[in-house]
Every structure is written in C-alpha cells, then in structure tokens.
Design brief:
By secondary structure, the chain is an alpha/beta fold. It is about 30% helix and about 15% strand. The longest helix is centred in the last third of the chain and has 20 residues. Catalyzes the NAD(+)-dependent oxidation of formate to carbon dioxide. Involved in the cell stress response.
Length: about 375
C-alpha cells in the first residue's frame, strides 16, 4: 500500500537520523519515574456534557483518562482557555511535560510557547492534523509531536460525502424555506443537480481521500485524484479513479473539488485567486482539511461572483472562527464549526489512541510509527 510505504519511509528516516540527533533533543522514550504534569486543551461541552456518557472529547469528558492518570500519580489539568497571556494554558506552559490538544479546539503551540516550555517533551494531537504546532520550532527544540493516525478518517470521509450532496442538491435554501415558513420550489430547483455523472477531484488521496473515492464509486461519478504518490493499482481499478499528476490540469475538469491534503508550508494558501480562476465557473468546493489551505478573501470573492457556486467545510483559520470571519457571511456557503472528525465514534477512537501513547510514554516504548509527526527533534519526511 502506498500509505504504508510512506509511513515506513518516514519511520526509517527518523530511525536513521537518531545517531545524529541534535543535542537539544528532549529524550522521550526513556522510562522515568515520578509524577508528570499533563495538560489537555479541549472544547467545553457545558450542558451537553451529561447527555452522552461517551462524550469524551470535551473538557468535561477529558478523554476518559483522568482516573487512570491520577491513579498513576500524575497531575492532569484540562481546560478550554488557551488564548492570551492570562489564559489557563499559559499558567502551565513553564512546567508541563505533556500537552494534549485537538484540531477542533487547537492550542496553538507557537515557537514562543515552545521556548518557554522548558519541561515540555511531548505534544499529542487527539485526532489527526498537527498544524497547530510550529513543527519546525518543535523539531529544533527536540520535541516529539504525535497524533492518532487513522482515528477519524471514516468520520471525515462520510462528512465530505454529505457536504457534496448538500451542495449538489442545493439543500440548504430548501431547509431555510421550511424554517422561514416559505414554499418556493423554483428557488431550489434552478440549481439542483444529480451527483451521477459529475466529475469529482480530490486534492490529496491519503486515508481520507481514498475512503471518499470508494464511497463515491456508488454514485457513478467520474473520479480524479492528485497526490504526491499514486494509490495502489487495485484501488484505482476498484474505484475507477484516474491519477492527475498536474494539479492545475485537473482543476478545470472538475465539477466538484474536495480538499484532502494536510496543511504544510507547501499547501498553505494553495488555492489563491489565481488557482481558483483555473477551476471551471460554477465549481463546488468541499474542504474538511484545513482552512489555511484556501486564501480566505479569494474564496469570498469567488463565491460572491459565482465562480464558486458552493463552498462547504468545517475548517477555518483561525479556530474558533471569529464572529466577523467573512466565510460566515459569503453567499452559497454551507459551513459549520469543526465537527467532521469529532463524532462520538471518533472520540472513542482518538481517546483510546492518546491513552495508548501515554502508556507507552510512561514505559519508555515507541509509538506506532505512523503516529509520529516529529520524533525527538526529527520531522517526518512528508513534512520536510
């Protein structure tokens, strides 16, 4: 499998560089006794916290690991207060050893915070996507950054499929009519289409992108994908997806474009005004990857002009999105808060993954190779 080769090459690259590790490296996989200060940053559930006993991804649920950690003598502090010099997180920066956060309510681990976190050794992402961490600064400081790879890929792929259908069928205006006591079929039908026969292109064909291609096959779409690596020939044959080496050549062919690439320095602002202009007029966009992959104002302008006929996603920059974020008010959008990867099922998976990595950390054992983003000061190959 292509992704297995990527994970293996990343692990081999990390392993081969171990002998030349920077003297700044903060040793991770060495069992050490004593109480450790662990800080978790999650979104607050308030009145919803008690409505589901499996709602563990919030402050109140604390990933379901509080009793376990405290039984081992560790200090576990959980908060949603993460911004500004007077925040609860800032109080613990100087002496925390492990920081756990999520993409849904990210604690931005900046170079400045890393510099002040003299005791920090490990940053864990409860979920997938660690771009809230300054990875270069983390590597320079000798930190380890890891995430629960694969924990919410099904959740996100399903959500993408839902958003595609919402846009193609022009669902939201009809829903709003019902709420507002209206009935105007023409106001919906004039731009409602079938998904069958449309060309869908995914920018990125990793775990989520591949799952989306498999799910779209049943709709008899024309499927295209762009990635650094081709997917397995068997999966290409199964889905009928065609590899597009040149992104700009793929874009004008697509009725629908789905963003499935991680946020890196190479993909930040990837879809600017010029690249969006290369897409066909009336294109639909779904982005559950990262908001910063898109140029914010370029998306607003394209939605306003009609060049983008619909834009849906759950990722913003920054997060939480401020009340005056222009994507809240642009036409033809079907945006939500960052929810696609935090279903109850996904929460249980990434909570279990975090617990497993903490247990390995306490014992001085390695994590699963594919979970590493930075290992003791060395960036995984896909982030270099």
């Amino acid at each position: 499998m292509a992704m297995k080769r990527v994970a293996l090459s990343a692990f081999q690259a990390l392993s081969s560089s171990a002998s030349s590790t920077s003297p700044l490296t903060r040793p991770l996989h060495q069992a050490s006794a004593g109480s450790k200060k662990i800080v978790g940053v999650f979104y607050k559930a308030n009145e919803y916290a008690k409505l589901n006993p499996n709602f563990v991804g919030c402050v109140e649920g604390a990933l379901g690991i509080r009793d376990w950690l405290e039984s081992k003598g560790h200090q576990y502090i959980v908060t949603d207060d993460k911004e500004g010099p007077a925040s609860e997180l800032e109080k613990h920066i100087p002496d925390l050893e492990v920081l756990i956060t999520t993409p849904f309510h990210p604690a931005y681990v900046t170079a400045e915070r890393i510099k002040r976190a003299k005791n920090l050794k490990l940053v864990l992402t409860a979920g997938i996507g660690s771009d809230h961490v300054d990875l270069n600064a983390a590597a320079a400081a000798g930190l380890t950054v890891a995430e629960v790879t694969g924990s919410n890929v099904v959740s996100v792929a399903e959500d993408e499929l839902m958003r595609i259908l919402i846009l193609v069928r022009n669902f939201l205006p009809g829903h709003h009519q019902v709420i507002n006591g209206e009935w105007n079929v023409a106001g919906i039908a004039y731009r409602a289409y079938d998904l069958e026969g449309k060309t869908v292109g995914t920018v990125g064909a990793g775990r989520i992108g591949r799952l989306l291609l498999q799910r779209l096959k049943a709709f008899n779409c024309n499927l295209l994908y762009h990635d650094r690596l081709r997917i397995d020939p068997e999966l290409e044959k199964e889905t009928g997806a065609k590899f597009e080496e040149d992104l700009d050549a793929m874009l004008p062919k697509c009725d629908i474009i789905v963003i499935n690439t991680p946020l890196t320095e190479k993909t930040r602002g990837l879809f600017d005004k010029e690249r969006i202009a290369k897409c066909k007029k009336g294109v639909l966009f779904v982005n559950n990857a990262r908001g910063a992959i898109m140029d914010t104002q370029a998306v607003v302008d394209a939605c306003s002009s009609g060049h983008i006929a619909g834009y849906s996603g759950d990722v913003w920059y920054p997060q939480p999105a401020p009340k005056d974020h222009p994507w809240r008010y642009m036409p033809n959008q079907a945006m939500t808060p960052h929810i696609s990867g935090t279903t109850i099922d996904a929460q249980l998976r990434y909570a279990a993954g975090v617990k497993d990595m903490l247990d390995r950390y306490f014992k001085g054992e390695d994590f699963p190779a594919q979970n590493y983003i930075v290992k003791e000061g060395e960036l995984a190959s896909q982030y270099r």
